[in-house]
Write a structure and sequence with these properties.
The protein has ten helices and eight strands. By secondary structure, it is of the alpha/beta class.
Length: about 240
């Protein structure tokens, strides 16, 4: 398997040295040195929060692209399941009916389309049980991979306070395996760049085999000319 690119990196050919990325980075993970022509993101310090990506006006900050990886899964002949983050409703406000959105995802070639909100319900129940037994211990919810990285890299003394629960994405993927077996290829679709690193921690990276950001999903819709007006209604799989 080829070595993965860092989850966030700087494309030197686009960088104008505005240093806006340096100013917004909350963990000083972007290095500026006289011997370098442009800033450089230090992977060992980066927490994948994406603030630099948002702040960079020339779009020189890029993230690990998963489009080709997901295309390969869709063309592999294996059953594929899209795990869709609840925030689709705010990100894709241009889609008039969520059932059209589901149909558009199916048009890409996905066998199943599931809501991660089911995993949210599962994890919420698990948190309720955990907190009822906390007996005064402070617990930090571990749903956000950037926050988990922040603690692991910069506040390791707080690791015992991280709740010993997976994220809703991982919980949903576990359910998908129960429903369809080990052959199914799960792909997360959501807003979080650092989910691309989070999935590598589970099942040797094979529990969730691809992560598409909403930016990448729109890119695929455009490439395959998938539009709301061209699809029929379709609902999430139960």
């Amino acid at each position: 398997m080829p070595e993965l690119k860092p989850v966030l990196y700087i494309n030197d050919s686009k960088c104008r040295n505005s240093y806006s990325c340096v100013r917004v980075c909350p963990v000083n993970a972007i290095e500026v040195k006289p011997q370098r022509a442009h800033p450089y993101i230090l992977p060992e310090r980066c927490i994948g929060c994406g603030l630099c990506y948002v702040s960079c006006s020339p779009h020189a900050i890029e993230f690990r692209d998963s489009v080709d990886q997901v295309k390969a899964l869709l063309n592999s002949g294996r059953p594929t399941a899209a795990l869709v983050d609840p925030s689709i409703s705010s990100e894709f406000e241009d889609i008039t009916d969520y059932r059209k959105f589901v149909a558009m995802i199916r048009s890409l070639g996905f066998t199943y389309v599931h809501e991660v909100s089911f995993g949210v319900d599962l994890i919420a129940q698990a948190y309720a049980k955990l907190f009822s037994k906390a007996e005064g211990k402070y617990m930090i919810t571990a749903n956000c991979p950037a926050i988990v990285k922040l603690i692991e890299k910069f506040h390791p003394e707080m690791i015992p306070n991280l709740a010993p629960l997976v994220s809703p994405m991982i919980a949903t993927a576990m359910v998908i395996r129960e429903l369809y077996g080990a052959e199914v290829a799960a792909v997360q679709i959501g807003p979080c760049i650092d989910s691309k690193d989070e999935v590598l921690k589970y099942g040797d990276g094979n529990l969730v085999e691809g992560v598409l950001t909403f930016v990448e999903l729109r890119k695929m819709f455009d490439e395959f000319k998938i539009q709301e007006r061209l699809v029929k209604l379709s609902d999430f799989d139960p």
